[in-house]
Amino acid sequence: xxxxxxxxxxxxxxxxxxxxxxxxxxxxxxxxxxxxxxxxxxxxxxxxxxxxxxxxxxxxxxxxxxxxxxxxxxxxxxxxxxxxxxxxxxxxxxxxxxxxxxxxxxxxxxxxxxxxxxxxxxxxxxxxxxxxxxxxxxxxxxxxxxxxxxxxxxxxxxxxxxxxxxxxxxxxxxxxxxxxxxxxxxxxxxxxxxxxxxxxxxxxxxxxxxxxxxxxxxxxxxxxxxxxxxxxxxxxxxxxxxxxxxxxxxxxxxxxxxxxxxxxxxxxxxxxxxxxxxxxxxxxxxxxxxxxxxxxxxxxxxxxxxxxxxxxxxxxxxxxxxxxxxxxxxxxxxxxxxxxxxxxxxxxxxxxxxxxxxxxxxxxxxxxxxxxxxxxxxxxxxxxxxxxxxxxxxxxxxxxxxxxxxxxxxxxxxxxxxxxxxxxxxxxxxxxxxxxxxxxxxxxxxxxxxxxxxxxxxxxxxxxxxxxxxxxxxxxxxxxxxxxxxxxxxxxxxxxxxxxxxxxxxxxxxxxxxxxxxxxxxxxxxxx
Length: 528
Ligand code: HEM
Hints:
By secondary structure, the protein is of the alpha+beta class.
């Protein structure tokens, strides 16, 4: 851990000793209480034998843990127990196991585990980490009212308009394509929540939220979470102890950025409302501010807190997931030109080249939808989702699942199920078509958005965003390999980032408008 090297040597040794003693104490208590249930004949689900203190922490790929768990599936099965330091983890390696526990027993499995760094690093405002209870329920109700399937239809014209803006931005500045995808995703979130249309570049509100994400990222790493859990005093070490005070400084910076990211766009919209400006009525904050007016003051304070937190959470949940999926799509197109050519042939045959795709065209474009499904499956942006936690002891198929266990749906393993997806590492949209060329019933949206009461509440909006981005780009752009100085295609191996979301890092490519597409015609389609 980087910050330990900055500490003076004796402090670092003391710190390690303290971590070990905390882990030993928790281990002894756990063994004592568990022994009682195991005596009744129930054992934990199968899994690797844990080493003393560390459990299996050193055997798991720290950057891409889903690869280890997926490899272990053959040996330990669909419901697997792994101990990581003092944390009990259950990994669900199949969609059916995730449905059995996270959906059918959702009253037990909808909590989130306690993560000691969430609150100090400003993610207490992020309701995706909220414990299962009344505050989470209120946030969830707010988001549901704005983003449920029928309500989310209101955002479609904006989503299509912003998708066309991606193409204009690519024509203007093709090398910045990852940035144009992020702008699209941020605009979708900011418009639907605050009626705020970010600038294509250097937008101050988008920068604020991204600065918060950058500042909080290191704090949410499992290593930092374990340390802060074992030694909460690290969050109050005075400035004059160099090295050790770094955790407090980083946490404070992240916390303050979190407050600013939550308050600034919220207050911006409140001012517009006070000035009686014209605001799109479906905007989440506008709609709920009006709903709040009928509440008494104590309920209103609670509601306003939930509304602010929900607004920030939408932005955090919507941006890197949506833009990451578009990065995956673009990578797959550059690697597989036959696929975008087949999709263009479908689009040209169905709607011609005189206009751009609209939502009403979707049922007539099954191959495009197959590409959307394959983009969600091939590199799921959340390969392990967000951890759930169990609120009380449970028995499943004769196995004991202790209260407080962290439960992961291994979405990556589901995407690599070879009985369902032969050759799972290849990008092949045809797997979602029947022999007549119609879409079949297999939809990875059934697992990539998570499970049960914590299932992604933005999934309808995400689906519409991803579809509008993909269909618009397929109708207007060619995706070719970049050339070297001799005119040869540049070969490259795809690499992936694993931060908030799993997505390809920028790769060499040559994305250009199709022959019949001009910037002017696109601008006309925006009404500008
Ligand atoms: C391709 C795009 C997206 C994918 C693959 C995705 C996936 C996920 C997953 C796997 C979870 C965890 C579910 C669980 O705990 O079982 C989640 C949670 C969440 N997502 Fe998404 N998401 C996407 C886009 C969005 C969008 C566009 C929004 C907002 C409009 C959003 C808002 C949220 C929120 C608020 C949560 C936390 C829910 C809770 O804890 O109750 N997501 N998402």
